[in-house]
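BUG-347 | component: ligand-complex export | severity: low

The export step for zinc ion jobs runs without errors, but we want the raw record kept on the ticket for reference. Input record follows.
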Amino acid sequence: MASNIYQHCPICSKPILYSERYPRAVCETCYDKACDAHGRKLSFSNVSIDGGFNAVVTDTQEEYQSHTCYVEGVECWADEARFGGIVLVVMPKYLFSRFQANEIESLHRELFKVLNISQDQLQALYKVMQQEFEVGGYPEHTLPRNIFHSHDESFQKRYEEALVVGVDIPSLFERDDNISSKKTVIIFGQDPLRKSNKRVEEIGIATPYALHLKDCREKLRNTRLYFDLIKVLLDAGYRVYLTDISKVWVSEANCDRGIPLSKQDYARFIQVLEAESKIFEPVAVITWGQVASKAIKSINLNVKHLEFPHPSGAANGTWRKLMGKPATRENRINYWRQEVFAYLSRL
Ligand SMILES: [Zn+2]
């Protein structure tokens, strides 16, 4: 069987040329059927010979501001192709935080060492986030501020006075494909930074980079890139467990500038992190940014540690130096794919 020469259009099943990079690409006939949510036909093009992506409503030539489109009612994603032109792929479906029973129990036991939250509360939070996973907008969830208690008296006072406090619960992503034996990769972020110009008494509970929200995964420029990086792993069949080094972030009393955690509390978070690694038994851990990298280097997780600059725009200079080329979205994703699989494909 020449299965390495052909793949099948995921919409009409017609055989098309095999593409390692775009296994979910649709055929030319289906490509020509792309329309928006109202059924208006869409046309795509590059911005220039250097690539870029441009979409218009075919009849009116009105600019179409999204990459999401539909072919025969199936949600697709149009984007610039690696070597020019446009590629249209069927959006794979992902699952959010579908922990195994023993995993959620163990995870709760560890989180409970730093957050005063019951397993029922934790599972209820994950459940509501699962329900919101494909919904647009930015729904918020809060818990009382006493969910965290510092082991340092003077820090506890600053915690109570803080203008705003952030708490993120870890998230787990995987492709929705009925495969239950996926290997796990852990990505460590820094902390649940929040912004606010006035005091917020309750704590906004989210997940790292709020990737449980569709608009954060697909619309917001920075966080969309973070999920694009994660998707590289998901689409290759890995589970990605995403967690922050510090699960709590605390601001000054009079502004939303962050303050360092007390030593005792930081040490507690490091212990949780070591336990998380034991629960999920990753084949590799990845850090984004120096703060996370230093924290992981300070402990021994007995697993390969792959370090990357933070994917946010603030680290563009570091990315440029590392890659030896402009820190475009495409270049970063390709570099990430190459580096991560240089290790994972050897396993
Ligand atoms: Zn087709």
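Assignee comment: Attached the raw record above. The first strand starts at residue 6 and ends at 8.
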